[in-house]
Amino acid sequence: MARSLNAQRSNITEDELVAAMVEALGAQPRALRVGIGDDAAAWKTSPHHLSLLTTDMLVDGVHFRLGSTTAQALGWKALAENLSDIAAMGGWPTVAVVGLGLTDQVDERWVRRLYGGFADLARQTQCAIAGGDIVRAPAVTLAITVAGEVRKTNLRTRAGAKAGDIIALTGPLGLAAAGLRVIDGSKSADIVALERSSSKEVELLREAYLRPAPRLREGKFLGSRRAVNALMDISDGLSTDVARMAKASGLDAVIDSAALAPHQAVAHAATALKADAVNFVLHGGDDYELMAAVRPRAFKHVAAAFAKRLGRRLEAAGHFESGPGEVWLERLGRRERLESAGYDHLRKMK
User: What tens digit of pLDDT does each residue of 146-172 get?
Assistant: First the structure.
């Protein structure tokens, strides 16, 4: 499935590079019947399930920087972003294919490490890397496509929220955005001082950005609950993604400011960066936590079962109500419109 790689500076052939990828990936799940090296992949699907398909692209200088991430971390994150989309539908991944655009900035060793990152997460999630394509490109580019499956009764979309539903989050927000700022400012005196005093927090923030955890178990659990009406992941920031769910469901969303207390690591980083921690929470992207719309009478029960099963808290952040699709931030009974200020891939092109 991989073809058309011109000679790199290491003069490795296409077949040799494909062999290196296969070696880096190791043994594949049994469901994959035909994988890398043939014209197409073949895998066994489960009866009584719906198929899911998602794709995402990452371009050097836009979505990542070669100089500030390792190949392993990049492989992990590229796959994690797509697995998060599968989780957001209440499903589980089965196979993935990887399109690579390579430049003279990278060599065989870098590609091996990239695939090592894919393999680390793929093994944890039983997602087979089934093949892909390789080309020369003006910038290092990754295009990942993941197929998954979901029980018909567990499928959730962003369009199912009902008036009165609780806006529930599977974890704290803003860590990845703060992590990116810490990485960008790693040589500044303030960040150096922060790392000396709170090295574990700084590492937590960096890992949140470089190696996000797709919430697959959480998505599967929430999809199985009849009281969960809608589900999506938070990849572009809460202010942007809650607006998407509100618009898709034909409702207004009201965010409770009291629920936006930042994680301690985010608060400390914001102080060092002279930034607003709440902005990280509201507008920071790359969190990949899940947002669910849960029936109000069932929320306490769902949250208790969630904590018992997964060892994590399901936090209420607001509610949906009748309206044309606006988002409001509520403080002490007073409301102000919350504009979408998260990441937009095309905003700079307008």
Answer: 999 999 999 999 999 999 999 999 999
